[in-house]
Structure formats: C-alpha cells, structure tokens
Amino acid sequence: MTLPFAIIAGLTVGSAIAAMSLRNMVHCALSLVLTFAGLAGLYLQLNAEFVGFTQILVYVGAVSILIVFAILLTRSTEPKDEPATVTPWVGISVAVAAFLTMALAVLASPIGKRLAAPASEVSVKTLGQKLMTDYVLPLEVMALLLTAAMLGAVIIAMKDKEGSR
Amino acid sequence: MTPLSGYLLVSALLFCIGLAGALTRRNAIMVLLGIELMLNAANLNFIAFWRFSENPETMTGLTFALFSIAIAAAEAAVGLALIITIYRHFRTANVDKVEDMKG
C-alpha cells in the first residue's frame, strides 16, 4: 500500500462518514463534495484520467450544486431538536454486516492480491473512438435518457398553475 | 503498488457508509446522498477491475463507469426534483412523515 493511496483513501472514507453523520445538511453536502473529489483522485491513481475529470465535472461541479440547491429549497420548518436518524442501530448493524461479508470475500479471493500491470496508456482519442464505434448504441440511449431526465425534472419541479390545485 | 484488494476494500467501505446513511437518515435528501455514495462505490469497483484486468485495452470498465456516471447524474436530477415536489406538497422532506399511501 502506498502513501498517496492511503492518504486519498483515508480522506475519502473519512469525509464519507462525515457526510452521512453530520447534523447540518449543508455540512453533509460539503463533505460529500470532498468524498467525490477523493474518488476522482483514486480514479487518477488508477490511470483513468478521463473518468477522473468527468467525475470532477459531473459530481463536484453539477450534482453537488444541485444538492445544495435542493437543501436550501427544502430548508424545513421542522423542530431542531428532532433526531436526524431513526433507529440508527438497525441500519448501522446491517451496513456493518454487509461490509464484513464483502471484506471477507475480497480478502479470501485470489484476485485481490493481483498487482496492476504496467500502466497502459489510454488516450482520450481511443476512448472517444470506442464510444463512437463499439458503444455508439449505449451512447445514443444515454443521450435520450439524459434528455428525458432533464425534461422530467423540469416538469416535476414546475410550479402548478394558479387554480389547478 | 497497492493491490486490487485495497481499492475493493475502500469501495466496500464507501458502499456500506452510503447504505447506513440511506437506511438511517430521515431526510429524503440525505437518503438520496447515501444512494449517490453507493453508486460511486460501484464506479470505483468498475475502474479498479478495469485497471487490474488481464487486457485493459478493451476499456470496458472505463466506458461502463462513464455511462454509470451519466445515469447517476440523471437519477440525482429527477430524484431532487421529486423531493422538492414532495416538500411543496407535504411541507416536509422527512420520509417518516410522508405516509399518505400507507396501508
């Protein structure tokens, strides 16, 4: 295990824990941005530069802004002393059990000890060519999905016209 | 070099943190954030398995992660729009208090 990996992984996991456990939701969103940035760092370590920068653009840039806007728009009138979680021990024990299962499987598997082959150079050009040839159908379906999601989000969140309710 | 299991363990940890958040938090936005975290953990798995695979030049893991990021973004947009509509209707984003359809 190398030092850069340990630092990035610790930062990512720590900020993820903060994002899921803090009381103030704006703080949660900001720690989640740190988690997304740490994941982008892990992608860069894995020689996936393009996916890393996509992660920064989409998550750190767009999704986090969306989340902050949603938090501010739903700033609720609920009493402050209400607990932020419900039956926390059930959920946490389920999550710990899931983690133990996965960790045992990972540590027992022979693939886990595999070391990376010498860094293969993946240029954005070859990735783009793949996207436009082998993966052109998923790409088009995704474009359709994004258009539908954008229209759907606008229509769902649109204010009702006066008198329609 | 970090072996594959290092990345897989980080990914499993992130997934379980997201799962715990989605199961325990009462605010719908926090539930959505937990789901986003779980999706990101899956993406890390795709990238790690691609990097450590026998023939990384096929780039299946990379493209899958790219598509997954795009779909997660669409999901976040629609999910947050739904939460804003629910908030407008019920004046709360607390998932325990939205129980009109409870049997």
Short description:
By secondary structure, chain A is mainly α. Chain A contains six helices and no strands.
Biggest beta sheet summary of chain A: none
Q: Please identify, by name, the CATH architecture of the largest domain in chain A.
A: Up-down Bundle
> What is the fold-level CATH name, i.e. the topology of the largest domain in chain A?
Four Helix Bundle (Hemerythrin (Met), subunit A)
| Mean pLDDT over the residues of chain A | 86
Number of strands of chain B: 0
Level of helix content of chain A? Answer: over 70%
| The number of domains of chain B | 1
Please explain how this structure is put together.
The complex is a heterodimer of chains A (165) and B (103). Chain A has six helices and no strands. Chain B has one domain: Helix Hairpins (Orthogonal Bundle). The radius of gyration of chain B is 17 Å and the shape is elongated. Chain B starts with a helix and ends in a 13-residue tail after the last helix. Chains A and B meet through helix 1, helix 2, helix 3, helix 4 and helix 5 of A and helix 1, helix 2 and helix 3 of B.
Q: What's the SSE blueprint?
A:
The complex is a heterodimer of chains A (165) and B (103).
Chain A lengths: L2 H19 L3 H21 L3 H25 L14 H21 L15 H10 L2 H22 L8
Chain B lengths: L3 H21 L3 H24 L8 H31 L13
Based on the model shown, name its key terms.
heterodimer; A: 165 residues; mainly alpha; Four Helix Bundle (Hemerythrin (Met), subunit A); 2 domains; 6 helices; B: 103 residues; Helix Hairpins; 0% strand; elongated
